[in-house]
Write a structure and sequence with these properties.
The N and C termini lie far apart (about 100 Å). The protein is built from six helices and no strands. The chain is mainly α. The longest helix has 30 residues, at about 70-100.
Length: about 190
């Protein structure tokens, strides 16, 4: 009998075995994160769906544009980006909901949320982008991570500040604010 293995499909060995395990763990982690997100998200307004889509578009755009391969660090960067983008989106949505609870209609509440939360959202995203710049510029194993975070946050921040308030206004536009209070956009007539 020969000591050499026959050609064919064999279980991965060495680093390939580690990669196989890592990809399985990543997929399992993403499934758990998606399930937790579904449980925790407000079912009345899926505002984080556009954020996720735009962040993924930004990640694909920057990885493709820079010729960076999709790798585990890039996927880790995607997770980091989604966390920051989701937190920023929740900040805008919660402020708009507070304004609606105060009696303001959905359009005005969304506009005020986008305007008043512009600086905190932009500061959070810029801090993350600036922190990732050295990693994205310097060649090395973490370069894809930095690039994925930067590309995803550029797109997701724009969506948080402009797309989320628009969708909020459309989704909640048919629901009036407090009917006993005048709308903040129209002056009270005497």
């Amino acid at each position: 009998m020969s000591q050499h293995r026959a050609w064919g499909l064999h279980p991965p060995e060495g680093q390939a075995d580690d990669w196989h395990w890592l990809w399985e763990a990543y997929v399992a982690g993403m499934c758990v994160a998606a399930a937790a997100g579904v449980v925790m998200l407000d079912h009345r307004f899926p505002g984080n769906v556009p954020i996720a889509v735009t962040a993924l578009a930004g990640i694909v755009w920057i990885l493709f544009g820079t010729g960076t391969t999709l790798s585990v660090p890039a996927l880790t960067g995607a997770i980091m980006c989604m966390g920051v983008a989701t937190a920023n989106s929740i900040l805008v949505i919660s402020f708009a909901r507070e304004r609606m609870a105060a009696g303001v209609n959905a359009t005005v509440a969304a506009f005020e949320a986008g305007g008043s939360r512009f600086r905190p959202v932009l500061m959070t995203a810029l801090a993350m982008v600036i922190g990732m710049l050295p990693m994205a510029i310097e060649p090395g194993q973490n370069q894809p991570l930095g690039r994925a975070v930067i590309g995803g946050l550029i797109f997701a921040t724009c969506a948080t500040l402009f797309l989320v308030p628009s969708i909020f206004s459309l989704v909640h536009g048919h629901r009036p604010g407090n009917a006993n209070q005048p709308d903040a956009a129209t002056p009270a007539s005497h």
